[in-house]
Amino acid sequence: MIPRFYYREKHRSLKMHGYADLPLHWGKVPSWLIPIMKRMARAISDVILLEWGPEKFLERLSNPLWFQAMNNAIGMDWDSSGSTTVLISILKQVLGPEDGIVVVGGKGKSAMMVGQELLEVARRLPVDPGGLERISKLTAKVDSTLLQDGHQIYIHSLLLTSSGKWAVIQQGMNPRTRFARRYHWLNAVNFVNNPHEAVAGVKGDAVNVIDERTERTRGLILDLLREGPNRVLNLYSEARRKLGGPIDFWLWGRAVGAVEKSKKVIYYQPVDLKRVRKVLEGLRLREPYSLEDALLGGLGPSTARALFLIADLIYNEPPSIQDPVTHPYDPFNYAYAIGGKDGVPYPVNRRIAEEVISTLEDLILRAKMGQREKEMSMRKLRGLREGRSH
Q: Which of 66, 249, 278, 300 has a CB 3.0–4.6 Å from the CB of 254, allowing a cystine?
């Protein structure tokens, strides 16, 4: 049976929010499986592109559960942290400007190549590489600075269409729990107020100023950035004193004042005051108009932690402790399409995979032939009309 990867059009406004546990998996995709994954991904992509077009495909991929379902359908494991890397890489290889949708970025060094890749894309698609690079940088900065949840981003990809629509899919790893978290963005307009389409991961501790209820906190942080560095560092020292003692007090379970545990995890992380001063001096010269401007101007996690502490303990405008992870249904069912590379729920069945791929490819070929026949008929009809007019 060919799995269905779409929901009914009448439910197009429905968002499937959620998280999926993505533990760290070692190993690589076997070389024999890669061509199968590419053909399957190409076939599924063609179905979506023919039926609904590039923008709808972008919407599908921005849904973490649909993203995971497609991943499982091409043969990846249902719960692997490597699933994001593999699907992004496969899609990057099988999609191109001729499809009206492209993928740039990826894992590790590839994530740093977004700007350069966008210049190449702009030669073939009518897109704004400068504006898209700004979006790429902002989304990465937001998920590492304004949201501090213990996950270090190591995958960053930007997906864009010829019409200018975009999505960002990036993933972070928590080195303590060894679980991954995936952040999905889709055509966000406001980058600092509840900007995600969805966040897939395990709920945990977070210090969060992109929560829609922290507008006053965001405003205070921007005001502090316009102050002199000496003023801010003095306030930071005062806030540290209010914590009630050194880090050992908290580590050994002693009282440290009325600060939530999730905040302590952030507040007690080391802050390099010399670096913070340098960042504050640079930002004051820039006079940032917005938090987005501050992020692009150099505001990073350490300086943000110092500002969070001041906002909380000096001005009583704390960041949120709400982890923005949402809750999905179990994506495991989709792993039954052709199996998984590590044998879960069963080893990839090449015969079934070939049957599914061949069936999809035949459907796509028929659809494309039908489309070409329609176009040829229209051209002939236009020719007849023009001949009669003469």
A: 249
